[in-house]
Amino acid sequence: MSKRDILVVFDIDETLIQFINKNAYHYWKEVTPEQKELIDEKLEYVDLGDIKKQVIFLRPGLGEFLKMANETGRIKVAIWTYSERDYAEAIANLICNKFDLPKDIFIFKYGSEDIEDHDIPKSLKQIWDNPKFGKKFNKFNTFLVDDRYGNLCHEINVNNSILVQAFAPFGESKQREPLTDKLLEKAIHDPVFAELTNITNNLIRDIDGCEDEEIEDAFKKEAVFAPKCIERKRLDGYVRDYANNIQMCTIGEVDNADDPNKGGRRGRRLTRKSGRRSGRKSGRKSAYKKYKGYRKSTKKYKMNKMTKKRKF
Ligand SMILES: [Mg+2]
Question: I want to staple 257 with a disulfide (CB 3.0 to 4.6 A). Which of 18, 55, 99, 149 is the partner?
């Protein structure tokens, strides 16, 4: 990592992929022949078959973006999910196999175990202050990409985040929904990776226009999406007023992103200090449940079960 690189930390579910579990697998089996044909032509997916009953859809443009990041070397990538770390590892492997990418492309794969304070989930400060990374990452070069407002809206992350449209061909609810032509169209014409490529290009151009001294200085002071510099970085088209009149960088339709299930309640705590920690509970529980179903049916889990104790 040089001083002039950037680090993009991706969420997994509804950001990189949509995971369809056993309980919802029948929706996949119920798609019409026309829809199936369109999916085969336009979307990437991994179907784990009728025994596992799981299918993973990959967001359009994911493979191209990661290949570009790998080839240019200027964009580093990492993963941080609200599910378990093992799930992050499994999905990272699946993505690397699918797109023939080096296994170490994701410089870290964090899970909920890595969230130190659930009132400030996915705090980037944990990365910036981690001696393991040798102070290479900071507020000038690191940002999150996530569909969950609650992970991004707190003070530490808000100017270092992009809130993205959920990638959800089978709907955004936990139990999933039947695939409609409308949902399928939305998934196929997903704008996120094209816009993200534009954003990272603009950021790199901005960095290349800076002197070394300016960069050193910005490391401490200038957040990636700080309102005062978005015009200079040609990112003003992406920044909008969101809930609580917070200014956020967004891509696509993000109107559902502050739903209580995605941390909207915690979002309101920004202006009202007292409040329940219910956002944390619901987020964690749903992610765990979802993962539990996934893990049960993986060979790796079966092996782990015999050889080591579960972490919780
Ligand atoms: Mg998500």
Answer: 149
Distance from Cα 11 to the centre of ligand 1, integer Å: 6
Half-sphere exposure of 151 (CA within 13 A, CB side): 31
150 CA → ligand 1 middle, Å: 10
For the chain, which residues make up each domain, given as ranges? 6-307
Let me know if domain 6-307 sits in CATH 3.30.360.10: no
Q: Per-residue pLDDT for 266 more than 80? A: no
Report residue 255's pLDDT band, with 50, 70 and 90 as the boundaries. confident
The kind and range of the H/E element at 119 are none
Strand 239-241 and strand 161-164: the pairing is unpaired
The mean of the pLDDT values for the chain is 86
The one-character DSSP state at 22 is: G
Beta bridge partners of 44: 58
